[in-house]
UniProtKB/TrEMBL annotation:
Domain RsdA/BaiN/AoA(So)-like insert: 186-333
NCBIfam families, per the entry: aminoacetone oxidase family FAD-binding enzyme
Keywords associated with the record: FAD, Flavoprotein
Protein's name according to its UniProt entry: Aminoacetone oxidase family FAD-binding enzyme
Cofactor(s) recorded in Swiss-Prot or TrEMBL: FAD
Regions crossing the membrane: none
Residue span(s) of domain RsdA/BaiN/AoA(So)-like Rossmann fold-like: 6-386
The organism's place on the tree of life at top rank: Bacteria
InterPro entries per the UniProt record, alphabetical: BaiN-like, BaiN-like_dom_sf, FAD/NAD-bd_sf, RsdA/BaiN/AoA(So)-like_dom, RsdA/BaiN/AoA(So)_Rossmann
Length: 388
């Protein structure tokens, strides 16, 4: 007769490996299955190869979810400090880039090695295609490497972003098969594309505040060949109501644009109108001047205040015309996923399907940029691992 594992974990990514390690330490027999040839491929490319593995300031407000309280219990049960302690126990050097944002000092591979060492004693099979999961007395997992049985199954195959790294909808499909509802999914933390691309601005970067209603992020923005990206844009993209819903972008963040332009007029009365844009990167300033000030031949002293006010409004409340987003090919995360209402917030187990767990990005919990998504993977993985 086939061995019956205490848990089969689908996905050897951040959340799956954390759940596997935790369950194994609790004495469970664990099998991890993954269709990729190696563990943690997204971890390896994360944080520009340095993996922003947590954020010390993590709280529920840093996540988007249909239930904004759902993540509290798991985050309290396994905190950023807990993960940092683990990182230090493994002798991994780290550095704090922005406040609270912790990265590996050397390589993201250090985090994958940590997880694999922590998960010692678990069986792991890579390059394994999962064909079906059914439930009788126990779960039966059919793969191209044979059938496996388990008392518990953990859905940990992540979200849909970056298909070329092996992302798939397996967890979402299995959730639906077992009657769990799924919140509609869209790309999150994703670059935006313009209706009319401005390739002449590609590479121009500047600090901005990008807002959607009451929520806004002050950080860098960079023009791409097709639109805009950079941390402020990725953050606000997660708050779009549809791909055409453009954020409002303030290119002089923290300053009153009208006052700033008025001060330039006063200081340089004999200068030409494009000098009003002296605080913006040169290429961008030229582009804006060509499109908004080219009819003017006067000096700043003779420029009507009305024109200054309208230029200030354009700079401080620019609403780009969008054609959409770069989609899952370039998104850092998937928004939406397995509905938190069908899961226990303490254990991540499906309320109506005993033994079925869902963790990590497959669940409708999406973090901001800055280490929050990995912290969710660790915390939800530990919550499930402890319950197995
Ligand atoms: P994850 O994607 O890590 O793992 C899923 C696993 O399931 C993979 O090993 C995959 O091969 C496997 N799988 C998928 N489909 C399968 C199938 N059908 N059969 C078998 N196996 C299957 N976050 C952060 O906090 N800090 C950061 O620095 C970054 N940086 C970053 C950069 C880039 C470019 C991206 C795309 C993403 C990030 N992220 C991030 C987000 C972070 O990588 C992500 O939220 C976590 O990896 C999610 O962990 P999971 O374990 O849920 O999925």
């Amino acid at each position: 007769m086939n061995k019956i594992f205490d848990a089969v974990i689908l996905g050897a990514g951040a959340a799956g490996l954390m759940a596997a390690a935790t369950a194994r330490k609790g004495g469970a027999s664990v099998l991890v299955l993954d269709h990729s040839a190696e563990a943690g491929r997204k971890i390896l490319i994360s944080g520009g190869g340095r993996c922003n593995f947590t954020n010390l300031a993590t709280k529920a407000d840093n996540f988007l979810s249909a239930n904004r309280h759902f993540m509290r219990s798991a985050l309290a049960g396994y905190t950023p400090r807990d993960f940092l302690t683990l990182v230090e126990r493994h002798g991994i050097s780290w550095e704090e880039k922005a406040e609270g944002q912790l990265f590996c000092a050397n390589s993201a591979r250090d985090i994958v090695s940590l997880l694999l060492r922590e998960a010692e004693g678990c069986e792991m099979r890579f390059s394994t295609a999962i064909r079906s999961v059914t439930k009788g007395d126990v779960f039966h997992i059919q793969t191209d490497m044979g059938e496996f049985s388990a008392r518990n199954v953990v859905l940990a195959t992540g979200g849909l972003s970056i298909p070329k790294l092996g992302a798939s909808d397996l967890s979402l499909r299995l959730a639906r098969q077992f009657g769990l509802s799924v919140v509609p999914t869209v790309p999150g933390l994703v670059p935006l594309t313009f209706e009319t691309p401005l390739p002449e601005l590609a590479g121009v970067s500047l600090p901005v505040r990008a807002s959607m209603g009451k929520i806004g992020f002050t950080d860098g923005m960079v023009f791409t060949h097709r639109g805009i990206s950079g941390p402020a844009i990725l953050q606000i993209s997660s708050y779009q109501n549809g791909p055409l819903d453009a954020p409002v972008i303030d290119m002089l963040p923290g300053r009153d644009a009208r006052e700033a332009l008025g001060a330039i007029k006063k200081a340089r009365p004999r200068a030409e109108p494009p000098s009003l844009l002296q605080d913006l990167p040169q290429r961008l300033a030229r582009h804006i001047a060509d499109n908004t000030l080219s009819d003017l031949t006067c000096t700043l002293a003779n420029l009507p205040d009305k024109r200054i006010a309208s230029l200030a409004a354009q700079i401080s409340a620019w609403k780009p015309k969008l054609s959409g987003t770069e989609g899952y090919a370039k998104a850092e995360v998937m928004k939406g996923g397995i509905d938190t209402r069908v899961l226990s917030s303490k254990t991540m187990e499906a309320r109506d399907v005993p033994g079925l767990f869902a963790i990590g990005e497959a669940v409708d919990v999406t973090g901001w940029l800055g280490g929050y998504n990995f912290q969710w993977a660790w915390s939800s993985g530990v919550a499930a691992g402890r319950a197995i």
